[in-house]
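I am still getting used to backbone structure tokens and would like to learn alongside you. Would you supply a protein for us yourself, any chain you care to pick? Start from the sequence, derive the backbone structure tokens from it, and show both lines together. Go ahead whenever you are ready, and we will take it from there.
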Amino acid sequence: MRVVSLVPSLTEAVAVTAPGLLVGATDWCSHPAGLDVARIGGTKNPDTAAVAALRPDLVIANEEENRVPDLDALRAAGLRVLVTEVRTLETAFTELHRVLVEGCGLDRPAWLDEAEAAWAAVRPVGEAAGGAGAAAPAPVRAVVPIWRRPWMVLGRDTFAGDLLARLGVANAYADHAERYPRVPLDELRASGADLVVLPDEPYAFGPDDGPEAFPGLPAALLDGRALTWYGPSLVTAPAVLGAALAAARPGAAPGP
């Protein structure tokens, strides 16, 4: 089988599970390192003629990452296009199984079971371990910018928001009418949040680009791939994200 992926996280999922299956991927498909396949443009502007020229048996896409006109053009070229929809952790696991097992005809990979087990072990916030002992900290209210110039934040119904909720972060804009609302900085500062969460994808927030906009508010700088990619990174994401959030949580003990 020959597969073209238009989604970076799905590119990694296929390449890790079955090296050699992929024949094409986007310019943004950066994992696994050293992936040697034809590059067919961006997620929002793929070269559909180049994709068709690769003669793939399957093109994998996502309803949020990719544009309908491009997917329609690929179908018009006679290609089979599998479009995923991922807005929660559960749908990520379901869609990964659909892509790898049903779409690509592969055996279910061990890493997918490991990822499900890793997230199943995440204790709900406020629940005591084993029903005894001290309860986990209460949820912390946070704003989660994903862009600046203009400022945009996570709103309702997002995969990243679902992961954060499982790790004890109550998104201040989880009930917003939009999934990725544009919110003026003054409003973000006045949201009553206890924490600002700054992933380094899709915008490269870092120590000197983001926290300074929220003076007096603790900032959690997160690995954006751990937060927004659905694939093998889900195995380690609970530990990676949990550690960063715990260190930034208001009242956390300072590091060494």
